[in-house]
Amino acid sequence: MHKVFISGSMRIKNINQDVLARIDNIINSGFHVLVGDADGVDTSIQTYLLEKHANSVLVYCAGDQPRNNIGKWKTNNIATNHSKGTRAFFTAKDLKMAEDCDYGLMIWDTKSTGTLSNAIELLKRGKKSLVFINKEKKFLKVKTVNDLETLISYMSETALTKADKKISLMSSIESFKNEQSSLF
Known about the structure:
Layout: E1 3-8, H1 17-28, E2 32-35, H2 41-51, E3 57-62, E4 74-78, H3 87-100, E5 103-108, H4 113-124, E6 129-133, E7 138-142, H5 145-152, H6 157-167, H7 169-182
Parallel strand pairs: 1-2, 1-5, 2-3, 3-4, 5-6
Antiparallel strand pairs: 6-7
Helix pairs in contact: 3-4, 6-7
């Protein structure tokens, strides 16, 4: 059965109806949902899944205990040697979710480097993601480096600079381009 990694920005609390309709399709198709334990989108998605009585849900967390598990679903606790509470500590669970899923559904505020990193990680693994750009109220499929470049075009210059410093965004894009050009 297909597994969908749903994630998004911690700043987003209210999920758009178009995204909820996609989640309804995921539930109705019997797909497994992989969701994190953070505040923001993760808890909003968990709340919605509970309201919809979804039972094919697996909550991923770094360390021993999830920060949030609203539906008391099974958890996948990811061991990490990184210091508790650091970006690297929480990224460990995201990397595992990217590994375990078939597809991604991301809800993005055009600033969150965590959500952007998840889309990049899926792309590295040859997996597609559908990113809902919250400000624009539109979906964008990310399955190529060109799609990724279109996605980051929605970022402000300040957000783009911060993302490049935090997650080496531009070198990731160059790496994808070099990989593609070496194929030909």
